[in-house]
Design goal:
Keywords: Cytoplasm, DNA-binding, Phosphoprotein, Transcription, Transcription regulation, Two-component regulatory system. The chain has about 525 residues and is of the alpha/beta class. It contains 19 helices and 9 strands. Helices cover about 60% and strands about 10% of the residues. α5 runs antiparallel to α10 and α11 runs antiparallel to α13. The two termini are about 55 Å apart.
Length: about 525
């Protein structure tokens, strides 16, 4: 999950800069990544900044908005577009809407107007993100079904062999044999087995991600997974970490057998049977779990998709600066969880907990929480009743909110100090909120909220005031020309500098200089 990126295309500098200010101060979940004064310049910026949303005027020199949107639709058909227009240009705007523009923003516009269209864009952006994630899950599910069918020598659709051969080219296969012997009667119910499979899958994928190793894990039979990685990529320390984590967190023994480089799809079943015989001989005293893995694998995919969905909802609230609504969202999730059956409740609780941990890892402190940061330190036990599962889930939510609050308190002061220092050193340059946020490794929308809370001013207001104070100092103590002072404090257009200065001091720079006797 990431925040949305906006490209603003507008030939009036004052209006363009005003839009940038509104967007970056408003904590809308969007960050301005580029500005252009005409359609031609904007087209050149597209590949560089890769926006998710374009705000474009219609009446512009060189290439107007209609021509620009026409080009966009041919090269970037899914890019979100909002049209900026005056009432006199409404007919043109209607033509642009026929080109697929999401909405209109009528000039002059208020902050509330901007908020409304950006909220609409946010809803569409996150809706598309959810659809993309759902499509990815469906594609992964189909790929896994085809691979499982080949391993178990089951019928498959026409074309599956070709797709599998392309996917498995230069891939290495590993068999993960699970040993449930130490769990005794804890996995008598299918739901408890599914809980353990889901947790094991997430632990393995988290460790691979932490080791920067691409891989995919397939549940073939209930006590056997097949892991697909790049050739020579699964190092011994990663394999050992998987074994240790599964034993520590789940009480499950895992033995890993190399299946070598993936053969042609028609040879996979023979290879799988051979490795199964090897693993069975090595663990002859272990009672295997006989039931096939097809239904369980489908449930596993649904659980993983739900993690992504919950994570998206959590991060969306944080990215938009809606920290207050986060508690309400989590409470609603707990209510939904309480209405499920016991087995569904256990899986749902673990799913929520994993989503919370993933959000912490990605949004708060990447890399600080260890290799299995996406896995909770414990999990709902298989012998828990409904009340105990709900208590456990509520504790996970409480810990998440405490961690969020603690992180905000411990980091905000130091981070804002660093931001202010960066502003003081770079105020003479183009200085966007997203640039400063990147320097302190924060999401721009969250940084905007944090900055205003710490300083009492929005980022843009703070930078503007700082620049005007520097400009006033130069007007009092130097004979620099006004356009030189404007440039020295980060304004490339003297007229815009003069307008901003007058807003701050209720007089023009020239009047201010005359008043101070320079």
């Amino acid at each position: 999950m990431r925040y949305g990126k906006v490209l603003i295309v507008e030939d009036q500098p004052n209006f363009r800069k005003g839009l940038v200010k509104m967007i970056e101060d408003g904590a809308f979940g969007w960050s301005v990544v580029g500005e252009a004064s005409n359609g031609q310049d904007a087209l050149e910026l597209l590949e560089q900044v890769k926006p998710d949303l374009v705000l474009t005027d219609i009446r512009m020199p060189i290439m107007d908005g209609l021509e620009f949107v026409g080009h966009l639709r041919r090269t970037h058909p899914d890019l979100l577009v909002i049209i900026l227009t005056g009432y006199k240009n409404f007919e043109y705007a209607q033509a642009a809407v026929r080109h697929g523009a999401l909405d209109l923003l009528i000039k002059p516009c208020t902050e509330q107007d901007v908020r409304q269209v950006l909220q609409k864009a946010s809803d569409r952006f996150y809706e598309r993100y959810a659809q993309q994630q759902k499509l990815l899950v469906q594609q992964q599910q189909q790929q896994d079904q085809e691979l499982r069918a080949a391993l178990l020598d089951l019928p498959s659709e026409r074309g599956a062999a070709g797709r599998l051969n392309a996917f498995l080219a230069d891939k290495e296969l590993w068999l993960l044999q699970l040993d449930f012997a130490g769990l005794g009667s804890k996995i008598e119910r299918k739901g408890d087995l599914g809980l353990l499979q889901f947790a094991l899958s997430n632990i393995t994928m988290e460790l691979l991600k932490g080791a920067e190793t691409e891989g995919g894990l397939l549940l073939v039979e209930n006590d056997r997974f097949v892991l697909v990685t790049g050739q020579g990529k699964l190092e011994e320390h990663v394999r050992e970490a998987i074994r240790e984590a599964c034993k520590h967190y789940l009480g499950i023994g895992v033995t890993m057998y190399s299946m070598g480089l993936a053969p042609a799809s028609e040879q996979l079943s023979q290879l799988y049977r051979s490795i199964k015989r090897t693993s069975a001989a090595a663990a002859a005293n272990v009672e295997p779990v006989r039931e096939g893995g097809g239904v369980a694998e489908a449930q596993l995919h649904l659980n993983q998709a739900r993690v992504k969905e919950l994570e998206m909802q959590l991060m969306s609230a944080i990215l938009r600066g809606q920290v207050d609504s986060l508690q309400e969202l989590l409470e609603r999730m707990l209510v939904e969880l309480s209405n499920k059956t016991l087995e569904e409740m256990k899986l749902g609780a673990l799913t929520l907990s994993i989503a919370l941990h993933e959000t912490v890892q990605k949004q708060f402190e990447p890399g600080e929480l260890g290799a299995v940061a996406g896995i909770p330190c414990d999990m709902p036990q298989t012998d828990m009743n409904s009340s105990e599962v709900m208590t456990w889930a509520a504790e996970q939510v409480k810990l998440f909110m405490l961690l969020l609050s603690s992180w905000q308190a411990s980091k905000s002061e130091n981070l804002i100090e660093r931001a202010i220092k960066y502003i003081a050193e770079h105020y003479s340059e183009e200085l966007r909120l997203s640039d400063v946020a990147a320097q302190i490794h924060l999401n721009p929308s969250y940084f905007s909220v944090l900055f205003k809370k710490a300083t009492g001013e929005s980022f843009t207001r703070y930078v503007t005031r700082f620049r005007m104070e520097k400009a006033a100092l130069l007007l009092r103590h130097s004979d620099m020309k006004i356009f030189e002072i404007a440039n020295a404090v980060g304004f490339d257009e003297p007229n815009y500098f003069t307008n901003v200065f007058k807003q701050q001091y209720q007089m023009s720079p020239k009047e201010y200089r005359n008043m101070t006797g320079v």
